[in-house]
Amino acid sequence: MDLSRYSNELRDLFITLCKIPAQTEHEDERAGFIANWYAENGLLNFEIDNAGNVLYYFGVKSYNPVHIITAHMDTVFPADTVLKPRIDDDVLYCPGSGDNTANLAIMMLCVKYLTEIGYEGSTGLIFAADICEEGLGNLKGVTEILNEYGARVEQMVSVDLAYGTIIAEAVGSKRYEISVSTKGGHAFHDFGNPNAIAIASKLISALYEQPLPEAGVVTYNVGQISGGTGVNVIAQNATFLYEFRSINAELINVLDENLSLALIEHQEENVNIECKLLGERPCQGKVDADKQQFLLDRIKNAYALSGWTEAGYGTEITVIPGSTDCNASLARGIPSACFGLAYSEGHHTLNEFTRLDSLIPGLETLINFVLDDNL
Length: 375
Description:
By secondary structure, the protein is of the alpha+beta class.
């Protein structure tokens, strides 16, 4: 498959998208650009839905089954992050380039290619540039789409992260904000009053010393802490963010119970502890094993038929559990998997980079997947 005619266009689109900020829950500018790009290229079968996703349709009718391909628009970086793509030796350096701007650009060019060849599949196909995949977005975008199409959704894939990794099992999670408040006071005259920071520290230590279930895999993390007003002030307030993850819903419940017990045990007189659920991602539901394996084989075959080997990336494919848009569909029992289309590293860091020569092989991979006779 010769896609060289798209090389410059895809590179330019990717670079342009990298410059558009897309903080979670603030993807409007990027969504507007995508809609305008579709329109300017004569790709008119799109809409922006109520959630802010940009949806492009092939053969979607009011009654037929649908397959969904998503690429999330949002990045983890705040709005004031400097987004100035720098190219050095055919490598583009920019925050958010690999997660998930490269995959987004490739998906858009795939829509253009399929339109140009007059693609018609045996089911409806939706390409979704979706919102709120990262952080506390809680998969709002893809959940809106799944709610809209319900039982009609037969399959979903997400293009995300880097080439060579397939995420085919959902890692669920819960995220909490835990706040401690006390009377506080002067560090000398009121010494002995409860200190919110000290209590929060004890609570964090207890969470890190909790007994973990013997079966399965669980992780937990305190990622941010704040509080107090000065070195000579008994802190009145302290807040920290806490999350835990597992591939097993029962183990998520165990860590939830451990948290509840720890909160009770650290409650003291003249101390108030509040725990607020910020976000939750579901674990995997009951998915037909044969259909799931069939989907994974199609993805691997799409990789094998593309130009990855010629581009120098090798052929090794890794299948792992993870937390992606596919959590929402796997939780509903829909065969789903996430796979990357560009060579990138340094995700979620300011040093993130993507190899530009991987974009066309990535486009070929996605086209191969869509044009599989079994779609």
